[in-house]
Amino acid sequence: MEGASFGAGRAGAALDPISFIKRPQTILRITAWVFSIVVFGSIVNEGYVNSESTPELHCIYNKNEGACNYGIAIGIIAFFACIFFLVLDLNFQEISSVKDRRRAVLLDLAFSGLWSFLWFVCFCFLANQWQQTKKSEAVSQGADAARAGIAFSFFSIITWVALMVKALQRYRLGTDMSLFATDQLSAAPGTGYPGYPAGSGVEGTETYQSPPFTETLDTSPKGYQVPAY
Questions:
Q1: Domain residues of the chain, as ranges?
Q2: How many CB atoms lie within 10 A of CB 170?
Q3: 150 and 130 in contact (C-beta within 8 Å)?
Q4: What is the mean pLDDT of residues 36-52?
Q5: By the 8 A CB rule, do 173 and 7 touch?
Q6: By CB atoms within 10 Å of each CB, which of 1, 17, 164, 165 scores lowest?
C-alpha cells in the first residue's frame, strides 16, 4: 500500500521545492494566507474609531463589536490554518500510510469547506453592518480599512472554495488508486496467474491421424505378400 496516492509521489521520494511552490494548491494557500492578514489586520489597525460623543473606541461596523471580533477571529484562525496546511503539504510525501494520507486529505477537505462557509458569513455580516453605519468624520478616516475587510472577506471565499475543490480532487484520486491497489493485492499470497482452461481428461481421436505406415499395412489387399529379397 506504499506508493503514489492522493496526488503525491511515492513515500520517501525527494521533493522539488520549485515544483512545490508552483503547485496550484500551494499558490492558493499562500493567497488565502495573505487575504487573512489583510482582513484581520485592517480591522485591528483601523477598525476601531472614536465616537463623537465619547472618546471610547467602537467598532467601525455600526459600532457592533461582534462584527469586528468575528472578522478578527476568522482571519487569525485562517492565518494559522494556512501555515499548518502548508507544512502538511510540504511533508505529505513523507507519509507512507495510505490511511494517514486519507485522513490528512479529509481534514483539508472538511476545514476548507467549513472556512468557505465562515468567510461567506463574515462577508455578509460585515457588509450588512457597514451599510447601516452612520457616516461621520471618524468613520470616514477608517472607511478604506472597513471596505478592505469586506472585499478581502469575499476574495477569501473564492480561495477557500478553490482549496476545497482541490482537496476533493485529491480525495477522489486517492480513493480510486486505493481501490485499484486493493483489488490487485486481494489475492492470497502464492496464488499464481490463472492458466488455460483444463480439459475433460479424454482426448478425442478425431484430431489425430494414424501413422502413414500403419495405414498402408491396414489397407493392403489380403493375400499379398511382400517379396523376400
A1: 16-174
A2: 23
A3: yes
A4: 91
A5: yes
A6: 17
- Integer Cα distance of 213 and 11 in angstroms: 69
Query: Which are the contacts of 68, defined by CB distance < 8 A and separation ≥ 6?
Result: 43, 47, 48, 59, 60, 61
Cell numbers found for residue 39: 482582513
Residue-wise pLDDT tens digits, 52-83:
777 788 999 999 999 999 999 999 999 999 99
Residue whose cell numbers read 472607511: 143
Q: Give 188 or 71, the one with higher predicted confidence.
A: 71
Please give the model's pTM, rounded to 2 decimal places: 0.71
Q: How far apart are CA 186 and CA 189, in angstroms?
A: 9
One-character DSSP codes across the chain: --SSBTTB-STTPPP-HHHHHHSHHHHHHHHHHHHHHHHHHHHHHHSEEE-SS-S-EEETTTT-HHHHHHHHHHHHHHHHHHHHHHHHHHHGGG---HHHHHHHHHHHHHHHHHHHHHHHHHHHHHHHHHHTPPP-HHHHHTHHHHHHHHHHHHHHHHHHHHHHHHHHHHHHHHHHHHHHHHHHH-SPTT-----SPP--S---STT----HHHHHHHTSPTT--PPP-
Which helix H or strand E contains 68, and what residues bound it? helix 65-91
DSSP output for 192-205: ----SPP--S---S
Q: CB within 8 A of 174, min separation 6: which ones?
A: 5, 6, 7, 98, 101, 102, 105
What one-letter code names the amino acid at 229?
Answer: Y
